[in-house]
Design goal:
By secondary structure, the protein is an alpha/beta fold. Helix content is 38%, strand content 19%. The model has no long low-confidence stretch (mean pLDDT 97). It binds pyridoxal-5'-phosphate.
């Protein structure tokens, strides 16, 4: 099918909720994308942040094919070998990062669902109603998670949302100090605000927040749906600040391209009571097999270290670009934001013409989230293309 045919057909049925670029992507490999007209792009978006191990990684594809012939979706109410093995692998990663000798895992199907589970768990375990989120934070679009997302554009048409949620300025500990009280079940936060403009918080802030939550009996939910799985040069961005969350949420890259949300917490804080939460497809054998392959690839190809090294080099190279248009380059690892003096949309359009697929973060930030397997030669092309566009 050519672009016009795909566009006509999809537009006939699309919900209207998602804005799309006038391009139909039909194929992807490693860090390259192809459209229906045969044009090739360097993927600097990891397809919206989910392709940290790259597209169609042979190990992930092999796990997918192998498991597809055996058992795709099982019953939530039965045990399963793939889920058990995945839990062991995921638990191992969490133990290495946070020292959680024993943890609970709730697999679901998306980032927003991972946050729904975290919010429900926090209310259940503390018996308190209050949730504190941050301005410019993004946590998803289902009613509970949406209540913690800040941008009015996403929230207002759907109000009233769940009660008990407040938003405080990000990276300002005085605001958290005032807000966290006896009725606070949880604080939900990103370590680097992704959608909000690629804003990293400081170590001082996160350590003080960790302490406040502990002292006041509120649970600290860290949303690593975008920052997790090596994106920032550590398995989890929390590790940059030497803090452990009470509940961590993952999505995007952890499934290797298949839908998987993960809510994880150490056993010491408690667990869901039977039948208080669940999901028909969450933790199905197929996605557990691909996710375990992702965890193995991360270790075998040392992608966490690669993200740290390439990220540092990329950020530095972007900072050296001679351009009046660039106000600031910031980020962690291969999560990079370029704040512009003007709007980002024309820059994205120009980049597409030069074969680079990137993302916006707000109105004036160009966000780069390349697959961690990207070649440095590809990144050199990206830097040159950005240099031309912002010159
Ligand atoms: C930090 C963060 N939390 C939650 C979500 C929601 O994830 P999903 O789109 O899989 O529901 C996103 C998606 O962009 C995200 O970046």
């Amino acid at each position: 099918m050519n672009y016009n045919e795909i566009y006509e057909l999809e537009s006939t049925y699309a919900s209207g909720g998602v804005g799309r670029r006038p391009i139909a992507l039909v194929k992807a490999q490693k860090a390259r994308l192809w459209d229906s007209e045969g044009n090739e792009y360097i993927d600097c978006a990891a397809a919206q942040g989910w392709a940290n191990v790259g597209h169609s990684h042979p190990k992930v594809t092999a796990a997918l094919h192998q498991q597809a012939d055996i058992l795709v979706a099982s019953q939530e109410s039965s045990y399963n070998d793939q889920r058990a093995l995945w839990m062991q692998a995921m638990g191992g990663v969490l133990q290495d990062s946070f020292g959680w000798a024993e943890c609970h895992l709730h697999p679901s199907n998306s980032g927003t669902e991972a946050n729904e589970a975290a919010l429900k768990l926090a209310r259940l375990l503390t018996g308190r109603p209050g949730i504190i989120a941050t301005m410019k934070g993004f946590h998803g679009r289902t009613m509970g998670a949406l209540s913690t997302t800040w941008n009015k554009k996403y929230r207002e048409p759907f109000e009233p949302l769940i009660p008990g949620v407040s938003h405080v300025p990000y990276n300002k500990i005085e605001a958290m100090d005032k807000a966290i009280g006896d009725d606070t079940a949880a604080v939900i936060i990103e370590i680097v605000q992704g959608e909000g403009g690629v804003h990293p918080g400081s170590t001082e802030y996160f350590q003080a927040l960790r302490q406040l939550c502990t002292e006041r009996g509120a649970l600290l939910i860290v949303d690593e749906i975008q920052t997790g799985v090596g994106r920032t040069g550590k398995w989890f961005a929390c590790e940059h600040h030497e803090i452990a969350p009470d509940i961590i949420t993952l999505g995007k890259s952890i499934g290797g391209g298949l839908p998987l949300g993960v809510t994880a917490w150490p056993k010491r804080i408690g667990a869901f009571k039977s039948a208080t939460h669940g999901s028909t497809f969450g933790g199905n054998p197929l996605v557990c097999a691909t996710s375990r392959a992702v965890i193995e690839v991360m270790a075998e190809e040392q992608l966490v270290a690669r993200s740290a090294q390439l990220g540092e080099w990329l950020t530095q190279a972007l900072r050296e670009l001679p351009s009046e248009q660039i106000r600031e380059v910031r980020g962690l690892g291969l999560m990079v934001g370029i704040e512009l003096r003007g709007k980002v949309t024309p820059v994205l359009q120009q980049l597409i013409k030069r074969g680079v697929w990137a993302l916006p973060a707000g109105l004036n930030v160009l966000r780069l989230l390349p697959p961690l397997v990207i070649d440095s030669a590809d990144l050199e092309e990206v830097i040159a293309a950005i240099g031309e566009v912002v010159a």
